[in-house]
């Protein structure tokens, strides 16, 4: 399989591989496993690696990338690396230093894509989730248009080839798009997206503006204690998805990933199991019939695994709008 052609052109002329390897890991996952699995993903054929300052593992992911460059598996230009600006660094003067810190941890000269991770701003500092003595989140108020201007400067400086956003709703995207003196449009909006939350309205809006939609949580999600209700339904146990998997002689996960690709969505797949990492690359080996795509569309129930309720109440909380 030639993965070189499985790419989408972004609105700034760069190309993003349509299948990415997600690297978020729960605290209990050993750091060494992150290195090993990222190396395996690259060795298996993944060229798009998605990470973030929030995940607290860029050093390990960087080690894996360097290792595969050094052993000749890939060159730096073969890898599309995404990092994200966390909410404690939204103030314009903090944007470039945050990216530079990520680059230092990664041992890279540039990232291919830098995203504003979440539109809610938090009090600056080294804590990921700064709280007061009562355990209440310390929010900040920052003009995201000013944050975006600082992101544009990172692109101009060559520290990020492309810039975009994550978890933005339509209104917040329009705020950036309508900003006076806008130099670069966001190339993408990375959002939770799967058959139970298919984001069809947001996808149509993004397509109309030349913005790629990137799907995280495309296989449902693991039950992360701090942000996901343990009683949530398992997407990959859905009887319709399972019946379709049987029909195509593929796993339910591959059906869910293929669904996104055929909608024109860039999709992230995360696994720390060797056989799953390799299996996910089989997404390019089959196609879903148009009637099956419609059946999967009808599974939508606007169900969000990652509700981000802890940020509710901030004026930039993105999930109160319809899309």
TrEMBL record:
Keywords: NADP, Oxidoreductase. It comes from Jaculus jaculus. Belongs to the aldo/keto reductase family. The active site is at 55 (proton donor). This is Aldo-keto reductase family 1, member C18. PROSITE patterns: ALDOKETO_REDUCTASE_1, ALDOKETO_REDUCTASE_2, ALDOKETO_REDUCTASE_3. Residues 19-300 form the NADP-dependent oxidoreductase domain. GO terms for molecular function: 17-alpha,20-alpha-dihydroxypregn-4-en-3-one dehydrogenase [NAD(P)+] activity. The record marks 84 as: Lowers pKa of active site Tyr. It comes from the Eukaryota. GO terms for biological process: parturition; progesterone catabolic process. SUPFAM superfamilies: NAD(P)-linked oxidoreductase. Signal peptide: none annotated. Substrate binds at residue 117. CDD domains: AKR_AKR1C1-35. It holds the Pfam family Aldo_ket_red.
